[in-house]
Specification:
Layout: H1 3-15, H2 18-25, H3 29-43, E1 48-51, E2 54-57, H4 59-84, E3 89-95, H5 97-114, E4 118-124, H6 127-135, E5 141-144, E6 153-167, E7 179-180, E8 190-192, H7 198-209, E9 216-219, H8 223-231, E10 237-240, E11 253-257, E12 263-271, H9 278-296, E13 303-305, H10 307-310, H11 313-336
Parallel strand pairs: 3-4, 3-5, 7-11, 8-9
Antiparallel strand pairs: 1-2, 5-12, 6-10, 6-11, 6-12, 6-13
């Protein structure tokens, strides 16, 4: 027995006519009559009595009609509940300052649009600190620049971003053109993060590879203060292109390094899948989508998608895990509303 047969039968009873009911249902009369006959055959009883003026229910038909109406109301209520059900939960996301500056607001807007009942906490900190917080289960997922291979984490390579020499355009000795090599920056007054910062470790390797000794005049770990010092003309800095997105840095000039070593990889790392809630799984998909679209739209200077990021089989798995219930709900609703 199918729900559509119940709807057909109820419509026939309401109209007391096969023809009128068929017209309302968008069926030909013979097809509707065939469905009613199948229903009667399945129940092994006559539900309708044909007369010269139409049809009337038999006693069995009246009893069946009352229960059919009740079943249809329950089915409609179930479909309505499925349509209005929303994913809920609490998710904590770790982002470095440069990453938060370029995609933080877009990510929050995307979450508000797709999962308005999921509460998101964003932790803005150094990549190394975020890694420690992830290990301590203080956050659910984070975009990191270096991995800890011993950890049982889920990983998704997102992009690589080039480093830029950034400073005031009238700074003496700043290279001209769109590209430069790391050795050209060594003699300039550099304002860099301290040695505990992952970016500083990367730059140290770059200068060592170029056999150049950098002229570091100040060390500042906070990105906001560091960039204010650069805008004040106290020196130049080397940063990923993501720090160039805010409009407050429009007065600065930037030169991209073409050294192969002068780039860093961004990886979306989360707790293992058996530890993540459905809300966290959904948030991971949204974060990866926002980052990928930001790069594709040219909003992330110096960034190129990782090969695995152009098509993400990991995301397909996450999408299946987190949205299978939605698919099942949709299928159920369609079956409930067949007419």
């Amino acid at each position: 027995m199918e729900l559509r047969q119940l709807r057909y039968f109820v419509s026939v009873i309401e109209h007391r006519s096969m023809g009128k009911a068929a017209l309302e249902l968008g069926l030909v009369t013979s097809a509707l009559s065939q469905q009613i006959s199948r229903l009667e055959g399945e129940l092994c009883t006559r539900l309708l009595q044909r007369t010269s003026t139409g049809v009337v229910p038999t006693d069995a038909g009246l009893a069946f009609w009352r229960q059919a109406q009740l079943a249809l109301r329950h089915a409609d209520a179930a479909a309505s509940a499925a349509r209005h059900a929303r994913l809920t939960g609490y998710v904590s996301v770790g982002l470095a300052q440069s990453t938060a500056g370029i995609i933080g607001v877009r990510f929050m807007q995307a979450m508000r649009s797709r999962y308005p009942d999921v509460k998101v906490r964003i932790v803005e900190s150094l990549s190394g600190y975020l890694s420690t917080m992830l290990s301590a289960r203080q956050i659910d997922l984070a975009v990191l620049f270096r991995e800890e291979p011993s950890q049982r984490w889920s990983r998704l390579r997102l992009l690589k971003e080039r480093l830029f020499l950034i400073g005031l355009p009238d700074m003496l000795g700043i290279p001209l053109g769109e590209n430069a090599n790391i050795s050209q920056a060594a003699a300039l007054p550099l304002i860099l993060p301290s040695g505990s910062h992952g970016l500083r470790s990367l730059l140290t390797r770059c200068f060592e590879h170029a056999k150049a000794e950098p002229n570091v005049v100040a060390e500042i770990d906070g990105l906001s203060l560091l960039m204010r010092a650069v805008r004040a003309g106290l020196g130049v800095t080397i940063q990923p292109g993501s720090v160039l997105a805010p409009e407050i840095h429009d007065e600065l000039s930037s030169v991209q390094f073409d050294d192969d070593a002068a780039q860093r990889e961004n990886t979306l790392i989360s707790l293992s899948e058996d530890e993540l809630s459905p809300a966290a799984l959904a948030t991971r998909i949204v974060l990866a989508d926002v980052i990928r679209s930001t790069v594709i739209e040219g909003r992330w200077p110096g960034a190129t998608l990782a090969e695995a990021g152009k098509h993400c089989p990991e995301l397909d798995i996450y999408q299946s895990n987190t949205e299978s219930s939605t698919v099942n709900q949709t299928a159920s609703e369609q079956s409930l509303h067949v007419s």
